[in-house]
Amino acid sequence: MVRVIFVHLLLFALPFIAYGVWLMVVRRSASAENWRDAPVLWLSLTGGVIVIVSLIMLASFQDQNANATYTPMQYRDGQLVPGKLE
Predict the structure, then answer these.
(1) Can you say whether residue 38 is alpha, beta or left, with left for phi > 0 and alpha for psi between -120 and 50 degrees?
(2) pTM for the model
(3) Which of 39, 60, 54 is nearest to 9 (CA)?
(4) Do residues 2 and 36 make contact, with C-beta atoms less than 8 angstroms apart?
């Protein structure tokens, strides 16, 4: 669960990271003065849309094999056999 939250926080932060990279490339500085003029509302809305789209995608593709039985990874004859859904 922590991984899912971390991934969605990272997805929300992507527009801010991209803006910071853009500031460093175009203006040669990502100083605090440049961030004061940042379009924070648009960056937040873009991050929110990215998170919503990722949640929709997660819900759409999560239960494809809901009735399958998972066989965990096993150690056979000196080799690891990967887990699988049957």
Answers:
(1) beta
(2) 0.64
(3) 54
(4) no
